[in-house]
Design brief:
This protein has 383 residues and is mostly helical. The chain has helices spanning 39-53, 62-80, 87-94, 103-124, 131-141, 180-192, 200-214, 221-235, 247-252, 254-267, 270-307, 313-325, 331-338, 342-354, 373-379, and strands spanning 7-14, 17-24, 161-162, 172-173, 328-330, 358-360, 369-372.
Amino acid sequence: MQRGLSGRFEPATFGGETVRAFVPDPLPPKPPLDLSQLQQPLERASLAVGRLDSVSTLLPDTAIFLYTYVRKEAVLSSQIEGTQSSLSDLLLFELEEAPGVPIDDVTEVSNYVDALELGMTRLGEGFPISSRLLREIHAVLLSRGRGSEREPGEFRRSQNWVGGTRPGNAIYVAPPHEEVGASMGPLEQFLHDEEDGLPVLIKAALAHVQFESIHPFLDGNGRVGRLLVTLYLCASGVLCEPLLYLSLYLKQQRDEYYRLLTVCRTEGDWERWVAFFLEGVSVTADDAVNTARALVGGFSDDAMRIQGLGRKAGSVLRVHEALRLRPVAALPEVATRTGLSFPSVASAMEELMALGIVRELTGKKRNRVFAYSTYLDLLSEGV
């Protein structure tokens, strides 16, 4: 449905030139969404999210999957913003090993993991989704490395824009900074309005566009906007764990994603965006479930191969189990986790390398770091 402009343009002056900055109308859209157009994609997305939320039935310990899956999302979300860090780079960085990319890139990704963990901790403490929580998350996201000088944890006090070298040649000019607080307040109210009759997934779709339109921070808006979706679904009880991430889908559909954001603003056709978003939810949730199934199958296949080692199998299986929890590890860490001696762990790791289950990452003879190949390769798809 084309409603026309879903906001208003306000004059904003930057660098001596006056531009038109877009100020979005409060949600929900008016006239209301035509939910009849969205019924089928909503049903598919809801079923897919339900399967994803029950992924714990596939895994002996959801934390095994969650630890690395969260880090995959951190890499993907940061790659959209231009970083070059890989999943293995991040895991090496967390082991205090030098990554293979500029340190700012991997620090930025590590900040994302910390920001998500803070958000989930705050939700567990009873914090609502709010401007305060988003500012706290932003403060962690920009706490180190690139962007740390861009007012971490504070709504912007100057003009920003998307694309271009200045507002005058930008793709999109966000609201004047004086409008940020006035726009974020109604967004917060919308998220907590239980009387509007809108399904949670549709509210998440609308809220994401609204947040991106407001662009309340000087930097990091894209990453916070993607985190908002996952945290809102967890806060609303749709997900028990933060397992739904749209970054890969948005990365693959980047041009369409940006086009539909513009369509929402200039034409008011929210239904097209919501259908796109719900398709992304379906695809992403199904991919996560398939990955979890493949992971369980890989664990089982590798354990069977290890059992063929005979008397050596006991210690090798213990090392294999430790690598299931942390797929990139150094020998001292594995020795601590398993309770085995350093020589026993080193011998077991050699057996795993001979089977092709593990590979060494550093190329060093000392202080070596090992990766569970099947696990890391599976989670690295699309990164």
